[in-house]
């Protein structure tokens, strides 16, 4: 009888511990998921406004030009994530002075990178767009858009870089509210400039830059409130190298969809012309936010995993991972189901022409199946990064964007024509899941 009572008490303790951990994960991850979703929604907002104001030409231009703002954003995410992972790791070890130095170093890194990005991208803007496939009226519109985006690089790098820092400082709610403020401003500015002042695609660019300025101001206000009221330029070679090693994975993860976008645009031009590019533009406006949404779970639990790993609490690390993987599976299925149900209405929202609508439905249907695996694939990389297994994280990130995705986009259309382009996304997600399965046993041994 005593044994049964002890077992019952142990079971209650385990259930209570699991319940508390679930609550903690939700508190940490939910604001991050919303913030990432809003980040992905920027492209939807731009797409809807551009589609209504500039039609297929505007949609094709912004889609072909998208790697430039995506590169700028990825720089901020990479540096911010690298600094924030280290921040949580050392906070778990109780080394507060190192955390303060890491904060100042990360801010210095962000500002310097933003200035450098403006200079370098201004020099290569036109030839880069030509490499991406921009020509004629599409190139003209793309140049208008990217000139403004490049001029505001420092705001975009700083805005996206501050968000991971806030999340790892236990300010995930503040990070979400900052993103919400930027998102609202983006909508208002886009509407006013594009429809009231008839600025066309330039209005979308100004909306993006203005929104990031709001995010920076809101983020700085939160940092001020939390006690970070002084900032001095700081450089430390070893910590900077560590930020780079960790951040290169987040940079690649952020840029991977854009690398796929570049190859997909080129294949769309080859197999279907500008109409296919416009069709893919709308598909990407749906795919990218969903990917950001699912990636947000991994980024949301990363501070917890980094903290517990730094504190050598591996039981808690495993509990957080279990909850995160379960959430990814459930939300991936939900995202696929909702998207499939909305396919008949999406094309009209973005002002697609009749020609583009013909290929959109089948393309969106096929692409939706990638959501079943995308979330867990991104979470795999976030977990590896959080426990400082940077080599494996880098391998998983760049083999996808530099090998698996391009190979699928090259081979599949040769067999199934334009449908092969849409198949590349779910097939890539499936292959990456298989690759992670091959290295999983070795990963467990290292942990």
Protein topology:
Layout: H1 2-65, H2 67-92, H3 96-131, H4 136-151, H5 153-168, H6 172-196, H7 201-225, H8 237-310, H9 314-349, H10 354-368, H11 371-386, H12 390-416, H13 418-446
Helix pairs in contact: 1-4, 1-6, 1-7, 1-8, 1-9, 2-3, 2-5, 2-8, 3-4, 3-5, 4-7, 5-6, 5-7, 6-7, 8-9, 8-10, 8-11, 8-12, 9-10, 9-11, 10-13, 11-12, 11-13, 12-13
Explain what the structure shows.
By secondary structure, the protein is mainly alpha-helical. It has 13 helices and no strands. The protein has helices at 2-65, 67-92, 96-131, 136-151, 153-168, 172-196, 201-225, 237-310, 314-349, 354-368, 371-386, 390-416, 418-446. The radius of gyration is 22 Å and the shape is globular. The chain starts with a helix and ends with a helix.
Which whole number gives the mean pLDDT? 80
Category by helix and strand content: mainly alpha
Overall helicity: over 70%
Amount of beta strand: under 5%
- Our Rg estimate from Cα atoms comes to 22 Å
User: Helix and strand string, N-terminal first?
Assistant: HHHHHHHHHHHHH
Q: Distance between termini?
A: 39 Å
